[in-house]
Amino acid sequence: MHMERTPESVFHVLNAQCLSPKATSTTRWKIPYISEHLLNNEYTFVPFMGITETWLKGYITDAQVQVKNYTVFRSDRDIRKNGGALLYVHNSYIVSDCRVFGDQYCNGIMLKIDDLNCLAATIYRPPECPTHSFRRVLDEMQAFLDDKQEENCEVYVTGDFNLPHLDWSTMTISNTLGKTGKESAMMLLDFMSKNFLSQVIHQPTRGNNILDLVLTNRAHLICETKSTSTCLSDHNIVSVVLGYDARRNANYGHRVKEAEDFSYFNLNLMKADLEQINNDLKLVDWDYLFDICQPDADGSLFAELIRLTVLQICYMHAPTKDPPKVDKRPRVSRPRRILHRKRKKLKGRLNSLKRLNPDAPAIKKLEEELFLLAYEIQENIRK
User: Fold this and answer.
1) Which tens digits make up the pLDDT trace of 205-226?
2) How does pLDDT run across 160-219, given as a tens digit for each residue?
3) How far apart are CA 119 and CA 211, in angstroms?
4) Which of 7, 170, 278, 317 has its CA at 20 to 30 Å from residue 130's CA atom?
């Protein structure tokens, strides 16, 4: 019997390089392709998808770019060609707030998705973008975040930022970026620092460069990130796998998959008897299991039987995980937790910079920030 598998919850980020649905367009196949292969396939559930460089204009209606089961939110660039940004959000969600920014350079869309308690945004910053335009879209994003500050939301800021010479492993900016690029990179790093955001994409998304980014304040909820080549664009499609079931239903909740009945998440495989598991697997008559699954056109029955057989053997030779320990320490106030997180990130940046470039002038500035932060924490404790 075929058992229904829970689809992975994944959101995508893509520079589409034109989604025009016009009859004369050579790219009108892209929206049906996105609908069938990315948003409405049986293996994944996609709560939202951010797309940049849509190249849409105001005279193209939402109905022309509509996708089954999804609502579209757009920011078009009408003054100049190309550009634009778009967010598809699953129809099962309620979007309580939407703000759109667009000038002749940058585009941005910011949404509050109530059912996920999530702020999702997509931003497009073109190459050679003037500093003032990028500053404006970040200011709009900051105002949106400030308005929702008390709601403790998940934040996912996605898009194509076109900052190829920003090293995300060390958070340093290359001199080859140019004056405008450097200023934009500094503004983005400051924006991230102020809002405690981490950039989680570390695979190239176009050539050898990381141009398409995902900034979040909940990196621990992300299981995996992928950057995969696609026929839709010369950019890779970026996929972010969430560690919880994002589907909206009666049992919905942000429950990370750790304690499901009869699953690998329930086992402490670090303490398993791997030698005995290996011996038992050798004794299984896999040909017999294959025969009893026939007919099985797509192999799904046999695959599920393999999974259950291996799982049953693992349960025989591995202990289950201990229940999580209750933290009896007194709760730390939210402002102090924020200060501690900021200090931890500053220490990481400082140590990385000292290791890679001990003479960097930014070291002194980071040390001063850490000193002031330590003083602020002490003042907060006294209160």
Assistant:
1) 999 999 999 999 999 889 899 9
2) 999 998 889 888 888 777 788 889 999 999 999 999 999 999 999 999 999 999 999 999
3) 21
4) 170
CA distance 22 to 220: 42
Structure tokens at 215: 């900034």
Q: How far apart are CA 172 and CA 105, in angstroms?
A: 25
Q: Of the candidates 151, 89, 100, which has an alpha carbon nearest to the alpha carbon of residue 124?
A: 100
How many Cβ atoms are within 10 Å of 338's Cβ, its own excluded? 13
What backbone phi and psi angles, to 5 degrees, belong to 309? -65, -45
